[in-house]
Amino acid sequence: MTEHPSRRPSTAPALITDAPMSYEQELVIRKRRYALMMGMRIPLMIAAVVFVSVPWVAVTLLLASVPLPWMAVLIANDRLPRKAEKVSRFRSRPHELESRDHPVIES
């Protein structure tokens, strides 16, 4: 007796591109984001010293550098967004399978 084609195990290879990112890879990305944001703080403070002759620019640069450590920690501790998974659902109309003609095999 042959097995029904829809019940055979799938021989199609699994796509590894659909696999989630490993924790180690995600951690590297988060560390890079943290270092980038913390690295922006020092140039902002140096620029504030350079523009000390224009007080509103210096104050603006200093105020921009104040929340950077807090924002860097929040962003570094936040996990990366997961991929949106498309859920496959079977939807059929009532009696859709029974509405067609069935072949009759006589022995």
Mean pLDDT score? 78
Ranges with pLDDT <50 over ≥5 residues? none
Q: Report the sheet with the most strands, covering strand number, pairing sense and barrel closure.
A: none
Provide the gyration radius in Å. Answer: 30 Å
Write up what this structure looks like.
The protein is mainly α and 107 residues long. The chain is built from three helices and no strands. Helix content is 46%, strand content 0%. It has helices at 23-50, 55-65, 68-77. It has a domain at 22-77.
Please outline what is shown here.
By secondary structure, this protein is mainly α.
Supply the key terms:
107 residues; mainly alpha; 3 helices; 0% strand
Helices and strands in order, then pairings?
Blueprint: H1 23-50, H2 55-65, H3 68-77
